Amino acid sequence: MTMATEAIGTRIALYRRLAGLTAETLAAQVGTGMTRSVIANIESGRKADISVAQLLAISEVLGISPIALMLPLENPSSRISLREGRREYELGEVLEWVLMRKTSYSSERALGTHESRYVQRIAKAIAEKYDLEHERLSAKPSERPGIDEKLSEVEDDLVTLTSALRNGI
Length: 169
What we know:
By secondary structure, this protein is mainly α. The chain folds into 2 domains: 94 residues, lambda repressor-like DNA-binding domains (434 Repressor (Amino-terminal Domain), Orthogonal Bundle); 54 residues. It is built from 8 helices and 2 strands.
């Protein structure tokens, strides 16, 4: 199985129905030029392309992760080919990669392992910063200095990591 747009469309239709939305309601809530007919064409596979912005907006309206639209989570034993005619991966392998728990499995990487790990570390630091910011909101005043210290360390790490990546490591 390849990660074809029609599979994404089928999953959009599934989650839209589960959310109790019509194609017209989904389109109106997504906005940005989305119409009922565009949603219908994506769902049926007649529209062969969907932008990242559209995928994210549809996911947000449906209240699900974009991963649920991109990957066949409804079929855990799936095997997926990321590129036509290339190796197939188990769904779990692709999910680990998308969630940035592992770097790409490709031996034809444009980025080396070292650079890929920097990207992975940046994503983890961003997630940690987000978690700490939300933890601070609900923390007692006496707990905030400790959280602020951790937050400062994570922000410093982010500056260092992103600077290194932008400067070619």
